Amino acid sequence: MESERELTLKGFAVILISAIISVTINLNIPVKIFLTGLGVSGPAGGMIFFGGIIFTLWITLAHLATDCRRYSGVFTAILIPAFCMLFSPWYGVVDPPWFGIYGLAAFLAEGVIIEMACRAGLGYARMAVGGGIANLACLLITWLAIGFHTGNWPSAGLLPFYLAAALASGAAGALIALIIVGRVKGNIQG
Prior knowledge:
Elements: H1 4-28, H2 31-37, H3 45-65, H4 72-84, H5 100-119, H6 124-150, H7 159-185
Helix pairs in contact: 1-3, 1-4, 3-4, 3-5, 3-6, 3-7, 4-5, 5-6, 6-7
């Protein structure tokens, strides 16, 4: 049997690797170019449509893979914007210089919501709702920060579509994580 220290080190490795994979995907996939080509504009478009795969999946996967250890989702979530900001300011905003705090707050909210969804049980519906709400909360905090500081707001006419897409994206990411971990561990409840 493994000692508590080994579990902690293993858990930390899972958290770190999950965050690094998420950041690598985020920094290397040209989401903005792809969305612009489709005629989608506005702040945080990548988070709307791909946040579930780029962020929610990896936060949820780390939390589930560490047996839903307390704060594993939160730590993973906070590491993602922290690592991203090593390469560039949060959404390119440099005024105010502390703008990156919004990124940390947005992902903190996402991590907390994912952990709350796991506490309710590992069913498909619970995780889908939790992942969707988590991605949506992260997006809303990001939109508010960008809007208040840059004046760049999402299109009011497209808002219902964007909100539904963010919910669906987050739900998909959480479900993919649940399926992956469920196949490995075999512990999913209906």
